[in-house]
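During the reporting period the student researcher (J.K.) took over the structure-prediction task from the postdoctoral fellow and processed the backlog of single-chain submissions. One of the processed entries is reproduced below for the supervisory committee.
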Amino acid sequence: MTNTDRLQIVHLDKESISPKIDFIKPDTDHIWTSYDDTPDELVIPRLRDADIVVLNKVQITRTHLEALPKLNYIAVTATGFDKIDIQACHDHAVVVSNARGYAKHTVPEHTIALIFALRRSLMGYHHDIRQGLWQKSRQFCFFTHPVSDLHGSTLGIIGSGVIGSEVARIATALGMKVLVSERKGASQITAGKTAFDEVLARSDIITLHCPLTPDTANLIAAPEFGLMQKMPLIINSSRGGLVNEADLIDALDSGQVSGAALDVLTQEPPSDNHIIMQNLHRPNLLVTPHIAWASHQAMQALWLQVMDNIDKFVAGRPQNIL
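J.K. obtained the following structure tokens:
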């Protein structure tokens, strides 16, 4: 890329990354402008002179791109890119890169932590103790919630990329049987994978690790819950739209699933009347605020990779192109 002027780089949502990491800047000569958060109505004004935009969850649409002829590169500070109109970027010759691999430890570890918490009813017992049940117990312990081992159980993994594969490795080390799902509706089954419907039927725990696309929206909804024969736990630390939340609550009510842990929702942050927020009293529903990716080590690695992506783009060697 040739540009006699200093590059204008704008970071639209700095608050989406912990302030405790080291925010190094690209090596290329540039002017850096940063905003903690950017509502939709300020996207175009703030990017009018930008060559490069750094963002996480700020939406970029065709309308934005049509008003921003100078913009030529979008650096996404995440792996997911569902907020970006990729086809519109291609049409306007705007290069988009995401960050990859940085979450290969943090998301699997968070996923396993969620599984442990539900499988051993940690939330339910903690709540009971806060309510005074242990203090009033006539025995040294009490049994108000189920406690089950992971060893010997079957884990169904939907999404077999870097993160899904690491979850499988940890689960195997814990003595779990792992089923890796083939794509939903696939006519052929890849070696080493299991048909989607069979994974739903055979799994004690189902965890999702796939991107949100038009093909995966509502991947798990009422029809899929109906196929689950073992009342499994549902774990989603990928994208909120993969699981139909209203159908999930119905499945909890009917006993089709025995519990759920969600790190992601369809609305983030959720409103008070969001259906999941209305059900937080349930001891078998665990919600964390989209932090599976957010270990300090992962966020630092993410930022370093994004800055390297910018330097490589400026040098004419763009990486991680979408």
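The committee noted the following: The radius of gyration is 22 Å.
J.K. will present the remaining backlog at the next meeting.
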